[in-house]
Every structure is written in structure tokens, then in C-alpha cells.
Amino acid sequence: MTPRQRGWRAALVALCGAWLAVVMGTVQAAPTIEHWTRPDGARVYLVPTDALPMLDLRLEFDGGSRRDPAPQAGLAAATALMLGKGTQAWGRAPERREDALAEAWADLGAQWSATATLDRFSIALRTLTRPDVLHAAVALLAQQLAAPAFDDGVWQRERQRLVAAWQQAQAQPEARAQRLFAQGVYRGHPYGREATPQTWAAIDGAAMRAFWQRHARVCDARLTLVGAVSRQQADALADTLLAGLAAHGCAPLPPVPEVEPLAQATQVREPFAGAAQAHILIGQPGVARRDPDHLALQVANHIVGGGGFTSRLMHELRERRGLTYGVYSYFVAGRHAGAWTVGMQTKPEQADQAVALIHEVLQRFTREGPTVQELAEAKRSLVLGHALKLDTNRKIADQVAALAWNDLPLDELSTWPARVQALTREQVMQAWRRVIDPQRLVTVVVGAAP
């Protein structure tokens, strides 16, 4: 590191220290969460705030892609997509085709979305809390949840778009690298399944309807509300939103197996015609979100590759050798152990050198651990960043919904900074060495020079 770079780092550390007390004060005022379980089994998490006349709402079910049948990979995502493509008549509400449904939302000035991640099927709503708008928005969303059309004709059109995008992605080395990496890390686990034209062809409106009825279950729903509503109002909104789902019942869902640790290292190296850059992915299974070492691993990862320009990987591969514009690492932590991933791109002829350096950095960190300065800087940076995760109602809703989904303590957000600061070097390295083994990594290189 040059004297100028050391000067910038020292200035940054000083600035972080000066602001740390202010940020800690902000985070200590993390949202107070009210929580209760309704008679129907739905769990409600409420953060009342009258800062804005708005409501941010999240409704989540156990219906992520891990629940896709293997021959119908992509079913959860297709179901989420088609929730917005029209409704049947429900109660006094008329049938709404795709255009009419979009117009109804535009008239309200409200926003909604449906997404399926690895674990969760998530519904989001943002609306004014003015009574006429709020009640109309929740009623409209309730109709979509209770009576989605799942029209086969519309699905055929959307499926063609998905296939076209998939075919275009096959011309990108990045997509190939991601597929090979997922196969190597997950080895048949549902987390590693990929939707393809063949699996989309096996999906139709009946399959989506069956998936929705099985997984959109009131009995284990998580409902998060952040905004200018009271507990009484929140319960009334839940009544409306969940009314049409009660008929789905609560049949037990089969258990999903855990992601097994790697038994040995694997390497995959493929050429890719026309690739201007080699795409490198290195990693292995990490931990589930509820793992007691999750927080310590976030600190360790920040030092290794998650901290941007302050990370070891960035220093070694970009600053010292100019092999890449950027290198990163991160954990995906869900109900099961998602991947811990290191990723970067470099010139094809430099791929071997880059891979060797990544392995060297990981081995050295595992052997020696962080310096006192690295550990202190990582803690400061993470605490500062935590405050920025709670600076809007939308972000608070996302954080509380994640807390709810993972059954974490209600004080998870407010105690997070203090728990980060309390971590010792020994705790960080004990967690890292338990989970990350540099001798058992999946290494994928697509587009390297022959």
C-alpha cells in the first residue's frame, strides 16, 4: 500500500470513528416491533410509525423455489409472475384481465409485487394510509391472492419471453459459470435447480393453481406491516388480505434436505468462444441464517472480500496486481446453507494467476486470521452500514420480514451493532475455520485462455 493510500485509509478510519457514536445512537433507536400470532396461525409483525402517511407491507409463505418439483423448476417464479396477470371474479369484485388489473393499481397510486426467492414466496404492497386508498389497495390485493386467473394463454406468451431471455443468456459466459458453480456447490439440492425451456414447458395454469393453493397457507404466513397503522388496523387488514386463502388449508409440507458439506475440492474449466473476459467463481456451502456463527462470518467475509476496496482480495488482485476491476465475496444464508461465493472477471490469459491468488489469500487468512486493524475497521464499517438498512420504511419492512421469516428474536435489529462490536478475533476465526475450508472449494473458470 502506498503512503497516499495509507493516508486515505487512516482518514477513513478516523471519520468512521467520529461518526460511530452518532450511528450507534441511531441504531439504538431501531424499530420497536409488535408481534402476535392470530387464531388462524398467521404471525403478524407491526412497526407503527406516523412519520409518513404510508404503509409498507410484506406477506410471505413457504413457497420459494426450493419447493419446485424438479421437472417443473421455475414453478414458484412462474406463479409469482402470473399473480399480476389477471384475476377471476371474487365476492363483489369483478373479473379483471391483465390490463384492467394494471389500470386499477395505477388509479390507486399504490405499488405491489410478487417474487419467489430460494425460500420465500413474497408479496409486497406500498400504499397511502388514507382510508379510501388503503382499503381499496388491500381489497384489490386480496382479490389477486384469492382468485388469480393463471390464464394458460397469457402464460404461453410469458413463457416465450422467458425462453427468449434464457436463450440469450446462453451466449454469455457469466450464465454458464453460474450454472456450473451452482451444480458444484449444491449437487442436486433444490437450491441449485435451474428453470429451463423444458421445465417451463411442463408448467401450466393448473400446475400454478395447485402450487399456490398448497403453499399460500394462512397457518404459517408471516405478515409484516411498517407505517401509520395501529394494531387494531393491522388485524383488520390481515382479515381482508387473508380471507380468500383460508380454503387452502394447512396440509404439512415435506421436509427439504440440508445442503451437505463438500467432501473434496472440485475444479471446472471451460473455454467459451468469443469471451473477452474469463469468469471465475470459487466457493462452497456456507451456513443457514439461524446458524449461531452467522454474525461472526459476516465480519470475516467483510475482511476477506465483502468490504470493497478495504478487503484483502481487492487489495491483492486489483491494487497490487491490476488483475481485475473488482472482486467480491458474500454469503447467501437462508433456511439452508446457501453458497459462500468469491467472484471476479479478468483477462483470459490472467485467469490462472487470479485463481491461484484467490486460493492463496483464503489459505493465508484461514491460517493467520485478521489483523487488529482489519477487525476494527470491519466492525466499524458493518455498524455504519447497518444504520443505512433502517433509514426508510421500505428497508425496515424488508429487515423485519427477514427477521420474521427466520424466526429471529424481536431485538435482532436493535442489538445487532453491540453484538458485532462484542465479537472477538477468536470467535471470528473459530466460525470461519468451522465453515470455510480452502482445501474443499468449488473452482469454476469459464472463458480462460487455452
From TrEMBL:
According to the entry, every stretch annotated as the Peptidase M16 N-terminal domain falls at 57-194
Q: Could you say which enzyme class this protein belongs to?
A: hydrolase
> Molecular function (GO) terms listed?
metal ion binding; peptidase activity
Q: Which parts of the sequence belong to the Peptidase M16 C-terminal domain?
A: 206-382
Q: From what superkingdom does this record's organism come? A: Bacteria
- The Enzyme Commission number assigned here is 3.4.24.-
Keyword Protease attached: yes
- Name this protein carries in UniProt: Zinc protease
The alphabetized list of GO BP terms reads:
proteolysis
Q: Which UniProt keywords apply?
A: Hydrolase, Protease, Signal
Point out the signal peptide segment.
Answer: 1-29
